[in-house]
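Field reference: sequence -> structure
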Amino acid sequence: MDALSLGSGYDHAPMLFAAFYLMWSGIALVLFRSVLAAHAAPRRIISHVIALAPIMLIYAFYVTVLLPLLPDVSVERAPANPPEFMFASAWYYVPKSADILFQQIPVAAMILGAHRARIPLRTISFGLAILFGSLHLLLIFDGMTALYVTRFTVAATIFGLFLPYLYRRTGNGFRWAYGLHWSFYAVDAAVTHLVLAVPQWMM
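Structure field:
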């Protein structure tokens, strides 16, 4: 964003950032193609796309119609260094969707690779919980508030704990992973708009 002089990358250049993450998603698929063979085969990818299409339409309806109906976030109530999504438009969620896709590909590779290496499911689960939780603790160094870091860390830890079971027990782990990951941002945005709403007397 700094190199392009953008104050808000996802909002001000959504297609550019979406293309950026889609490019890296493609690279990740190539790099991890051996371990993702069963899930990344052309027919399998097409089936995932078809299954996720109606879900993505629901998400699109949410960010373009429902989310704007919620109260605006108050600048006075927002933290000093607010996350980008607090004041984001619907365009923010175009690159965010590609961003989530990119994140989930190496996660799938880790889970499937660990399973192929005969690592017990419980060990994979606890390992990912610790890894995801620890990575999100690093948000504190980006100047995020303690509340923001805490809720994202707790959510990431729980997500990491259950994700391997979704992959190994449901047969459609990628769809569950992507849908739940996206849903977290949707719910968090809604709660943020309600809790940090502009006071009625200012409207």
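Note: The chain has one domain: 9-197.
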